[in-house]
Amino acid sequence: MVNYGLIAIPLIAILVIGGLISFFIVFSFYPEKHENVSIDGKCYELVGAAHEKITSLTAEMKITKMLLQVSKIESQNAIIPIIFNGKDSETKNFIDEYNLVVTSNQKVIYFPNINGSVVTANITKTDLQSIVGNLSISDVIPLSKSVAGSIGIQPNKYITQDEDKDVSLLLDKIQKSRLMDIVSNSDGVSHAECRNET
Known about the structure:
By secondary structure, this protein is an alpha+beta fold. It folds into two domains: 1-30; 34-191, no CATH class. Helices cover 49% and strands 24% of the residues. The protein has helices at residues 4-28, 49-71, 88-98, 125-133, 137-140, 161-185; strands spanning 34-39, 42-47, 79-87, 101-110, 114-124, 152-153, 189-191. Strand 1 (34-39) and strand 2 (42-47) form a beta hairpin. Helix 2 (49-71) runs antiparallel to helix 4 and helix 2 runs antiparallel to helix 6.
């Protein structure tokens, strides 16, 4: 008769050791977060500290864009159309907190099965200025984005196309300067092959 107890212990040990080895092999090949950027026709790959800096820069540029857009709105009584998203409970609290007039509310499902909403609404310039002025980088970066950090200002009669173009040109200039600084002064930057964007 076969004694399964004698076979089971070595088999369990082999499976545990095999699992640990597999874990370390997979973990060592796990891709590092990176970003590829092109500056004046030269391409760079940013990893580690440089990737963290560009993630912060992207968030900072979003906040700066909204601050510049709000500064172009002359009327203090302006009602501005915005769009934002988040979990249902968070968007409801945000709507209630700022007494927003909702113009559309599209239900979405976020991973894993979290009910959310994409909302368009109207907000006063004063409230929008307050929200944007109090945004932090962590409100805007993807891993910790708040409802306030998801706001986008929609086209409106208070910001002309020329003013919007001026904002974009200024942002491009600032972002290029900051990107060059990151590439020149950060660890985790290497030259990369330029790829055609399609």
